[in-house]
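Thread: heme C complex, take 2
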Amino acid sequence: MRKVSITVLLLTAVVLFQFCSSSKKKATVAAKEITYENSIGPIIQTSCAPCHIEGKGNKKPLSSYTAAKDNIDDMITRIQKNPDDHEFMPKMHPKLSDSTITAFVDWKKTGLKEK
Ligand code: HEC
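Output below.
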């Protein structure tokens, strides 16, 4: 009788353990989301803000979350252009990497989140 109840206890423990570990796996699958703070902001600061800053010339300032959000379509169009095109951005710099361009596109797709 005692042996049986120990076996039942062990089986229950094994089943519970498997349940726990599988639910943990699911929780870690979620991919890192693209936000202004974790990716787009720093890219703009490095590659665009030196020229696109408030009060500098007649270019649009792009160095804030609101400015980036409001100009996302324009920015995507410009960074996807061929460097020979006169509208290409970042002006006078090499083309951004494919993964950086994709980050802008994905940021728009996922709702232009700030954080
Ligand atoms: C070397 C300076 C320079 C850099 C760096 C630069 N731009 Fe520009 N950008 C300009 C100038 C000058 C104009 C205005 C002339 C034109 O439309 O081409 C402009 C225009 C634009 C416009 C059209 C709206 C406007 O301000 O007239 C967009 C959108 C834009 N840039 C996006 C970007 C993005 C995104 C980056 C970074 C990936 C970037 N630019 C980097 C100089 C720069």
